[in-house]
Amino acid sequence: MDKVRDLASKKAAVIFTKSSCCMCYSIKTLFYELGASPAIHELDHDPSGRDMEWALRGLGCDPSVPAVFIGGRFVGSAKDVISLHVDGSLKQMLIDAKAIWF
Amino acid sequence: MGSRTVNIGIGNDKKAVTAMPSYVPSVPTSNPSLEHVVLMTYFSSTEANTIRSSRIPDLGTLEQSLGFRIEDAVDLTRNPLFNQIKSSTQAIADAQFGAINKTLASADNNLSAAIVGSQTLTLKKDTPPNLVSISAGRENWGDSNMADASPRTDISTDDTDEKNQRFERGQTNAIVASDSSDRSKDKTDQKTLRRLAQNREAARKSRLRKKAYVQQLESSRLKLTQLEQELQRARQQGIFISSSGDQSHSMSGNGALAFDVEYARWLEEHNRQINELRAAVNSHAGDTELRTIVDNVTAHFDDIFRLKGIAAKADVFHILSGMWKTPAERCFLWIGGFRSSELLKLLANQLEPLTEQQFMGFHNLQQSSQQAEDALSQGMEALQQSLAETLANGSPGPSGSSGNVANYMGQMAMAMGKLGTLEGFVRQADNLRQQTLQQMHRILTTRQSARALLAINDYFSRLRALSSLWLARPRE
């Protein structure tokens, strides 16, 4: 959990993924489309990946990846991100966190 | 009886003839019986195939109807009745069976006459003639099933007297009637008559059996199509054709079929609600009333997304296939449903007048849905690529080694995992569709929402009508 929090606060936009996860690929693509450059942490390539995954699940993230943090705060999984994007909230969050400027 | 070599006994000279290199038709000579024998052996030999197939119709069938084997008529000249038969049936022969006559005529005019001189005759012109059946076991003929046309390559004839008798039996009633009067062999004539009758009887029974069987087949076929139609109708009416009788359970149990039924019901209810909405809009109903109906329609949309989610869990490929939609709708299928961006594009011009804020909001919504669609599409592509790579990695080496088997199983396990993520994509695509509709209603006024829902329904109705037209189009 600490590692998750730690990594999440390091950059405006942080996404925890797995290299084999294609939904993670979709969310990453969406962020790039918006002009953000999120920090990507692949749990399957991290030694403490299992613990981190467990921590993410504890936050209510189901499936555990992709897990999105903006401005250090947990936003949610793919479903939450898409919903927030459709109603315009996602973009505003990124602007507020200075991940993007317009 | 087993197969026997050709053993033709003809009157005085018994000859064993196995095969003739070629058949040379010739006018009956002083010893025409030998000619007939030659004819029969020719037919039984393989070399006869070429002529056989081109000129001789299915003598097997011919035989059946005649009720006697053609070989029985081999030694015609030995039959004292021969000329009588010839005269009475020559006309028939010439008229009906030119093909037979052509081949047989020169050598055996009389034989053909005898053949045609029978009650009924069916002639198959297209099938390769089963002439070999000519030489079928003689003893079985009269009583056996006429449908038995197993080729047997042996001709066997016993003494000519018996042959004569069989030939006589093969005559018409008239001929037989005139036959029995002046002959000295009354006793044999009696046997002849009986045998003749038996043969005819057997042939008739065989024909009746065949007819009955064909009729049975026809009626079974009709019944089958009827049952199929009934089943189709029952499915459409929402009857669960399944082993589990409980309706609430069978939905999750039956996957594709259950969903199709649920969708049909949903569509019916949706159309009813839309009609209600249309009536309210046309009658200039108040905002509150409109709001209620619009909320109902929106809530009903949530229903189908929920149902799709359950169905995707049970059978994701059915949802992805779009088989639950009409063909024209399937044209525009995107991850198991419609494209939100297309829907918004459709509405863009129909919702005027829009305020500045509404216009911006609508534009942003169009952009967001487009971006989300792109992201999901790219994710699907990545999934496809990943799946292909997983399955394409074959390991070189001798097949059957334990390492290869382990590799294969690992490959499959990984591929299975990837397939499992498809459900997630369908879920997110539906989520996008749902969110888009909800955001749209947030941007628009009640009246605008009502018009939007009507416009969406009009569009999809036209697509469905197009599908019906397409399915009913005349085909060459």
From TrEMBL, chain A:
<dbReference type="InterPro" id="IPR002109">
    <property type="entry name" value="Glutaredoxin"/>
</dbReference>
<keyword id="KW-0676">Redox-active center</keyword>
<feature type="domain" description="Glutaredoxin">
    <location>
        <begin position="14"/>
        <end position="75"/>
    </location>
</feature>
<dbReference type="InterPro" id="IPR036249">
    <property type="entry name" value="Thioredoxin-like_sf"/>
</dbReference>
<keyword id="KW-0963">Cytoplasm</keyword>
<dbReference type="Pfam" id="PF00462">
    <property type="entry name" value="Glutaredoxin"/>
</dbReference>
<dbReference type="GO" id="GO:0005737">
    <property type="term" value="C:cytoplasm"/>
</dbReference>
<protein>
    <submittedName>
        <fullName>Thioredoxin superfamily protein</fullName>
    </submittedName>
</protein>
<dbReference type="InterPro" id="IPR011905">
    <property type="entry name" value="GlrX-like_pln_2"/>
</dbReference>
<comment type="similarity">
    <text>Belongs to the glutaredoxin family. CC-type subfamily.</text>
</comment>
UniProtKB/TrEMBL annotation, chain B:
<feature type="domain" description="BZIP">
    <location>
        <begin position="189"/>
        <end position="233"/>
    </location>
</feature>
<feature type="coiled-coil region">
    <location>
        <begin position="210"/>
        <end position="237"/>
    </location>
</feature>
<keyword id="KW-0804">Transcription</keyword>
<dbReference type="GO" id="GO:0000976">
    <property type="term" value="F:transcription cis-regulatory region binding"/>
</dbReference>
<feature type="domain" description="DOG1">
    <location>
        <begin position="256"/>
        <end position="473"/>
    </location>
</feature>
<dbReference type="GO" id="GO:0005634">
    <property type="term" value="C:nucleus"/>
</dbReference>
<dbReference type="Pfam" id="PF00170">
    <property type="entry name" value="bZIP_1"/>
</dbReference>
<dbReference type="InterPro" id="IPR004827">
    <property type="entry name" value="bZIP"/>
</dbReference>
<keyword id="KW-0238">DNA-binding</keyword>
<feature type="region of interest" description="Disordered">
    <location>
        <begin position="135"/>
        <end position="193"/>
    </location>
</feature>
<dbReference type="GO" id="GO:0003700">
    <property type="term" value="F:DNA-binding transcription factor activity"/>
</dbReference>
<dbReference type="InterPro" id="IPR046347">
    <property type="entry name" value="bZIP_sf"/>
</dbReference>
<keyword id="KW-0010">Activator</keyword>
<dbReference type="GO" id="GO:0006351">
    <property type="term" value="P:DNA-templated transcription"/>
</dbReference>
<feature type="compositionally biased region" description="Basic and acidic residues">
    <location>
        <begin position="180"/>
        <end position="192"/>
    </location>
</feature>
<protein>
    <submittedName>
        <fullName>Transcription factor HBP-1b(C38) isoform X1</fullName>
    </submittedName>
</protein>
<comment type="similarity">
    <text>Belongs to the bZIP family.</text>
</comment>
<keyword id="KW-0539">Nucleus</keyword>
<dbReference type="Pfam" id="PF14144">
    <property type="entry name" value="DOG1"/>
</dbReference>
<keyword id="KW-0175">Coiled coil</keyword>
<dbReference type="InterPro" id="IPR025422">
    <property type="entry name" value="TGA_domain"/>
</dbReference>
<keyword id="KW-0805">Transcription regulation</keyword>
